[in-house]
Every structure is written in structure tokens, then in C-alpha cells.
Amino acid sequence: MATLLNTRLTSQSLVLPSGTTAERPANPTPGTVRFNTTLGIAEVYDYGSWRDLANGAESSGVSGSGASTIMYVPMFGNTGASADITDQISGTVGTLGGTTTRNYDQGGYTGLYVQNGGYLDIRPPQFETAQTTLNGRKYWTIEWWCWNFGTGAGGSSQTMLEMNQYPHGILYRGAGASVGHYWRGNPISWGNVTTGAWCHYALVGYGSTIKVFNNGTQVADTMNVVGTSQFADPYYQGATALRIGASNHTTAADQCTNGVFRKFRVSLGARYAAAFTPADVYPIT
User: What is the rounded end-to-end Cα distance, in angstroms, of the chain?
Assistant: First the structure.
């Protein structure tokens, strides 16, 4: 027998369950409908985002509530095993290029060591399906841990991540002594590159901006030029995969990270809106 919990039927209307943005359910089922009293809208949960039920737009105020993991690559595990470079959501195995070492022990944690043009390419199918692609979405999170040695052919001026091919999407790299983030070819630089220690990085699509965090501290809030993630598909403009540790348009040693990566995750929904303490263990939700 079906039941309607916290929902009232009257002779003239259907009254939805209601609550504030902060009261959104932690792990809602896609298709969940409620009235958001903070925003004054009816909203529906759609695979990682709360959307305005009236016009289909993603509702604002997403800050981890209802976020869902669509890609997770641990990049650690048994030496030579494929599990450490496999997307735990789809089972897609990544492809290693250049000089890489798996199960590399650094600072008490194991990860994937890339150097001298090394990288990891991965192309999970969920980025090509309507329900889970980042394209057209305003709220999403990309995060990873990296121990950047700050040495090698490019020093600290090295690419850590590229989604599709510059200048059409996201390029996250060192830039001399600072970190640079490129969105569709527009560079934003700030602070110093963290070297010689584990650092958590997060890029958060948040409405019309992209929030950037280093070790849980927000260091940038840059305009997302088109107001959506129109070009956040990792395969747009000829790129064959999402690439970690190097750029899709060059694998020259001076353009690639000399460092160790672990725990790369992509989520639908903006997990972070303000300062936070990075978690070493991600829930795969």
C-alpha cells in the first residue's frame, strides 16, 4: 500500500512536505519532491542537484546536502593491480601514460606518482549520459589530494588536472610560484603552490561562479563565464579523456606534475560553500 508521508491531500490542492534548505534530506532518492521554505520554491532532486520544479533550473543553496558521487578513483592499492586506477562507480579502468609509479608511499599515504610527462587518462561512461553529465549543470564538485614535489622539469609550474582540451574547459595548474585555474581560457591565479606536503584541492561549481579551495580554505571565487558548466564535459573539443597529472594538449615534462595523487572524486552538487576540513575518507554517496 502506497503512503504519502508529510503530504496532505485536500479537495483543492496537494500540499508538499516542506522545510528549509538546511533541512533537505541527506541522501534523497532521485524524484524526491518538497517545498523549500528558504527559497520559496517547489524543488525536485535530480541525481545530485535540487532543481526548481517550475522551470527545471537547479535551485541555489546546494552545499553538500544531497550531493552524489559520480566518479571516484582511489589511485592507491596493490602494486600493479588495476583497482587503484579504476573508477569505483562505473568500473572503468584508467590508462597510464609516461612515467608513473603505483602504490607509491609518500608521507604515510600511498598514491599514484607521476613525473616526467606521466599522467592518468580515464573516460567513464557516466559523463556521456544525460542524468550524470556535468554539461549544463551549475552545481558540481571536483576534488583530489596531491603531494607536489615542486621539482622536475617544470618546477611547480605544472598541470594537475584538465577536463576536455584547453582553452575550452577546466585547466588547473601551477603557474610559477602560484596556482592557476583556467576556465575557458580565462586565467585566475592566487597564493602559493603547496609543495612537500599533502594538499586537498576542490573546484566547486556554484551557480554563476566557481569556488576554489586549497586544504579547505577558499582561495578564489571566479566567474563561470557562461553561468553554467556548458563545457565541463571532459571529452569536449577533441579531448579523449579526463586527464590527471598533465594536460590534454601537451605531455611535455615541463607541463606535467611531479607529484603523487590519490582519491580523485567528481560529484553532482556543490559539496562545499565555505571553509571546511578536508576528509581523508570519502563516503561514496
Answer: 29
- Strands, E assignment, 155-235: 159-163, 170-175, 178-183, 186-190, 198-206, 209-214, 217-223
Measured CA to CA, the distance from residue 12 to residue 70 in angstroms comes to 40
Say which DSSP state 30 is in: T
Full set of structural domains in the chain with CATH:
1-66 (no CATH), 68-268 (2.60.120.200)
The stretch 203-219 carries a mean pLDDT of: 84
Please state, in angstroms and rounded to a whole number, the distance separating the CA atoms of residues 40 and 18: 10
pTM over 0.85: no
What's residue 198's pLDDT? 93
Strand partners, 242: 122
Mean pLDDT of 85-105: 89
